[in-house]
Design goal:
Layout lengths: L1 H24 L7 H27 L9
Helix pairs in contact: 1-2
Length: 68
């Protein structure tokens, strides 16, 4: 149980840092406003799907997440 909580916390920290880094780098790419908004929305959608997959794996709905 403790190992699962530590895994979840570490995954959220890693995903948070990745999201932060991508959001900091996006303004450096010159994109017209509609495309920049689409990229931001796609980033959030991908992160939410990853989090849902991790939670579903912990609940046993999909192939379980393997802990090292």
């Amino acid at each position: 149980m403790i190992q699962t909580l530590i895994y979840i916390i570490l995954m959220l920290i890693v995903l948070g840092v990745i999201i932060w880094a991508i959001q900091q780098l996006l303004p450096l790419i010159p994109l017209p406003p509609p495309f920049a908004q689409i990229v931001r929305v796609l980033l959030i959608v991908v992160v939410v799907l990853v989090i849902v997959y991790i939670i579903a794996g912990l609940l046993g709905v999909v192939t379980p997440v393997r802990f090292p």
